[in-house]
Amino acid sequence: MSGLHLLELIRPRTLLLSIAVMLPGNAMAAAYGAFSALTFALMLLTTIGLQSLSNIANDYGDGIRGTDEHRSGPRRLVASGILGVSTAKHIMMVCAILTLLSGALLIAISVQSWAQALDFMVLGIIAILAAIGYTVGRYAYGYYGLGEVAVFLFFGLLAVCGSYYLQTAHYSAPVWLIAIGCGLLAATVLHINNLRDIETDHSSGKHTIAVCLGWQLARWQQLFMMTIALLCYACYAIITNYWFSLLWLLALPLIIKHLRIILRAKQPAIVGKELKAIVQINLWINALFALGHLFV
């Protein structure tokens, strides 16, 4: 397999989301006066590993189930026969091991007790299993409408609260608001992906939230998740008086444009073209939120 095929397998353009979800927790920690560049770098490496693992597992899992045989989006390597099943499985396992090692190193340099280390190691193993279990296995939860829930938990609550704790060694109530908002925003990325694939997922028996809600309601679900997420970011500024954290409001034109396209779309293919836009929106919101903490 060529290097280009490997890049295609891990879907590099979606990896910006891994960077986006790491910014809020670390920015709030820096504003508190606790920040380690090495810890931040290992967080990024581990989160990128988790998302790459999820992407690889998604290609592998949907490929062996036949879900991607007639998809309208970018090609998938296992389903198209470009990549053998055993090769994809081996790559997935290697990625899982590397991610586990990165996470173990992160824990080793960041936590202050064996009990904390054990807690985070258990969470890390669960995150790795969740990345694989989205579409792999008899009870792959992505086929039962739980994909967005998993993204919310691991790319929201765990990413934000976990990164803040690893930097500061304590929790703060307002951080949970941003964790919820960040998780909902991250879930909108998967939701766009599932809206794009709603027809093929329905025909192949993959019951995503988009399939369960149907075309009309699923598009409004995007508006609902984004609205609640942005309210969380706004409430954080009100509660903490960190008004510069509202710099994310500069991204409102992009948000409005995105939602207008989604709500007016007549075909899943049109929604699919917004995948790049929603990843960039996640990055802009969280980057501007983080930038605002430099003025605290």
Task: Describe the protein.
The chain has 296 residues and is an all-alpha fold. It has one domain (3-295). 74% of the residues lie in helices and 0% in strands. The protein has 13 helices and no strands. It has helices at 3-10, 16-32, 37-65, 85-110, 114-133, 147-168, 173-196, 198-204, 209-213, 215-240, 252-264, 268-272, 275-292. Helix 3 (37-65) packs antiparallel against helix 6 (147-168). The longest helix is centred in the N-terminal third of the chain and has 29 residues, at 37-65. The mean pLDDT is 91.
- List low-confidence stretches: none
Strand content: under 5%
Number of domains: 1
Question: So what's the overall shape?
Answer: globular
Which oligomerization state do the chains in this entry correspond to?
Answer: single chain
The percent of residues in helical segments reads over 70%
Largest sheet: none
Instruction: Please tell me the overall pLDDT.
Output: 91
Radius of gyration: 19 Å
Distance between the termini: 49 Å
How would you spell out the order of helices and strands?
Answer: HHHHHHHHHHHHH
User: How many H/I helical runs?
Assistant: 13
Q: Would you count the extended β strands for me? A: 0
Structural class by secondary-structure content = mainly alpha
